[in-house]
Amino acid sequence: MSDKIEHVKCLIIGSGPAGYTAAVYAARANLAPVLYTGPEPGGQLMITTDVENYPGYPDGVMGPQMMDDFRKQAERFGTQVRMEKIVKVDFSGPVHKAWGESGKEIHSDSIIISTGASAKWLGIPSEQRLMNKGVSACAVCDGFFFKGLEVAIVGAGDTAAEEASYLAKLCPRVHMLVRRDEMRASKIMQKRVMDTENITIHWNTETDEILGEEEVEGVRVINNKTGEKSVIPVKGFFVAIGHKPNTGIFKDWLKMDETGYLITQPDSSRTDVEGVFASGDAQDKIYRQAVTAAGTGCMAALDAERYLTEKEII
Questions:
Q1: Which end of the chain is more exposed for a tag (fewer CB within 10 A), N or C?
Q2: Which of 239, 259, 289 represents a domain boundary (last residue)?
Q3: Which domain holds residue 191?
Q4: 62 and 142 share one domain
Q5: Which of 218, 239, 260 is the last residue of a domain?
Q6: Cα dist. 116→24, 75, 77, 262, 294 in Å?
Q7: For 186-217, what is each residue's pLDDT tens digit?
């Protein structure tokens, strides 16, 4: 076999809680996993400061530190972690193929996908500048930090409505910024929002700028019907306009829903291609939590081990 071609039992594409957990389980099962971290080693948690809702960290932990702990644990059991991106795959044959940025061709008896999903952002400079200083893309993750404070949330779908309802249990006032004069959310979710007294919906409203130097102090909005600008004093700003799963390289090989989330078989991490398993936010558009991603990473490794055992590869 060429030096440019490598054969492995288990290739894990992507890091984060799902990929690293899959690696821990796969390594302990003697699958000798090779993990390619992708362009963002550690995933979305690398841009998260305090993580207080992951079991085992009673005092909380910084996102990057948590991912470093996950990586070290995976490596302790023999996982090869490569700080590189998989750029192409070919799932047409019994042995699955993948190519790294360096040009190396990997042939693998099983593949675990844990490429995650990225939050969609508004694209304004202050959004990135105030990231983790009051700007967040996950109310369930960060809402607790704003207990007792007024916040704003931008979005009009089910996720935005659900997160606004969640924030309303913690905050005295939630300002929901909706770009049009109607919401995209389901009727039941719209009713829930409209029936919640401390949620104020600002129709035909777009974000002009998030205000504050070291932390969020307010949001300047513009009414897209009248052009009038106004400032809403808030301490937290939540973006809930959706997520984009990082699954583009699999589109010719695996079944996905209309937004690109990989479809797995019920109660399983198995995809529609034998020997290929999906975990974490690449296949979960409902929960999107570190702990649930880790759980599906465990499932994927166990499923891969059973598959390889059935095929008498291990």
A1: N
A2: 239
A3: 121-239
A4: no
A5: 239
A6: 18, 20, 23, 10, 12
A7: 999 999 999 999 999 999 999 999 999 999 99
